[in-house]
């Protein structure tokens, strides 16, 4: 059936990494299997990796990971995995921002692994009349392990469609002024409530990015460089030098060498040095998740205090802060140029207003 002109909609799809459906071993196991079976994520010969994954990692790690997820799982009817909760809130806020700008742009969220799956969300957008699609990964720094894998899946899904949408992809925005400004405002907002570190007295600010194996850098992946550029731009925006604000990499897995310096050993060393105050922020994670709330805010904090450090301050991720929603809208608008975004009829305008009211009621 032909789609009417008014139904030919523009959509922005936010995509994040993913999360299990519940904080249980039974739910974590299929999520981990999907994630760790991606050849973009683990570049080991398939036969060897299949044995390691299915015979060692999944039986052992599923239960351990479930306990960690349980420690950060958000309660209530609107609760769940923090990554999914914050990502949904971000999508809703971004759609409201577009409506406030007088634009008729569908916004939704999908997960590369787990639910809501990319395929299910894309089909939902197709049913709403999506004709133009902008993919906006919630990975500010490009990596083949995240961004490229997401693009692969988009191409796989739409390759089977009879009527494919116009498609645009945002590769990265690690140095976009609106992104850097949102990071700066998030840090300064925290300092307004908890006091600014005394950098002259040796206090430190640490920017912790998710790690990847060093061989990805050796093979030409720009992720390492983009993380350092984000760190430098944010440090300069805050008026700090390289000794006061450092870049590290977290979440190392396995025995292979990963990007250095590693977050946990660096924090432990600062504790041994009796650092009076350490603030830690994760610029590469737009939404709080297991890696920020459990690993950084809990595990790494304990290592710092046990080593003899003083105050430890975890600064929350951007989540759906006003500066970040404005920044996301600006990043998206930079890539939406030339695509119709204004309601094309009174009926479409009324529909847009109804969506705005419905979103407001849900908040």
UniProtKB/TrEMBL annotation:
UniProt pathway: Porphyrin-containing compound metabolism; protoheme biosynthesis; protoheme from protoporphyrin-IX: step 1/1
Family (UniProt): Belongs to the ferrochelatase family.
Presence of keyword Lyase: yes
Domain of life of the organism encoding this protein: Bacteria
Source organism: Polynucleobacter cosmopolitanus
Cellular component GO terms held in the UniProt record: cytoplasm
The protein's name in its UniProt record: Ferrochelatase
Entry GO MF terms: ferrochelatase activity; metal ion binding
Main location group: cytoplasm
């Amino acid at each position: 059936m032909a789609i009417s002109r008014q139904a030919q909609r523009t959509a922005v799809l936010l995509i994040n990494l993913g999360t299990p459906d519940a904080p249980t071993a039974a739910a974590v196991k299929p999520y981990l299997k999907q994630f760790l079976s991606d050849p973009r994520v683990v570049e080991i010969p398939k036969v060897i990796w299949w044995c390691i994954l299915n015979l060692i990692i999944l039986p052992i790690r599923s239960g351990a990971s479930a306990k960690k997820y349980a420690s950060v799982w958000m309660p209530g009817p609107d609760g769940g995995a923090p990554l999914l909760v914050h990502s949904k809130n971000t999508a809703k806020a971004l759609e409201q921002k577009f409506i406030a700008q007088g634009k008729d742009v569908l916004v939704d969220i999908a997960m590369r692994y787990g639910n809501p799956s990319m395929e299910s969300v894309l089909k939902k957008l197709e049913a709403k009349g999506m004709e133009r699609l902008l993919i906006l990964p919630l990975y500010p720094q490009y990596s083949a392990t995240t961004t490229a894998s997401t693009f692969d899946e988009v191409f796989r899904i739409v390759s089977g469609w009879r009527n494919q949408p116009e498609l645009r992809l945002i590769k990265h925005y690690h140095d976009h002024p609106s992104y850097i400004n949102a990071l700066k405002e998030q840090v300064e907002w925290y300092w307004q409530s908890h006091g600014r570190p005394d950098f002259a007295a040796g206090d430190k600010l640490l920017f912790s990015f998710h790690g990847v194996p060093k061989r990805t850098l050796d093979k030409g992946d720009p992720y390492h460089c983009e993380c350092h550029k984000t760190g430098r731009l944010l440090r300069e925006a805050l008026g700090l030098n390289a000794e006061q604000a450092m870049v590290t990499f977290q979440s190392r897995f396995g025995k292979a060498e990963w990007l250095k310096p590693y977050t946990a050993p660096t924090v432990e060393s600062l504790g041994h040095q009796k650092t009076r105050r350490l603030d830690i922020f994760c610029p590469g994670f737009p939404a709080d998740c297991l890696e920020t709330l459990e690993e950084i805010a809990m595990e790494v904090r304990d290592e710092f205090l046990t080593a003899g450090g003083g105050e430890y301050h975890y600064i929350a991720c951007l989540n759906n802060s006003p500066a970040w929603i404005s920044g996301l809208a600006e990043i998206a608008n930079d890539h939406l140029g030339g695509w119709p975004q204004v309601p094309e009829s009174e009926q479409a305008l009324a529909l847009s207003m109804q969506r705005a009211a419905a979103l407001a009621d849900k908040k």
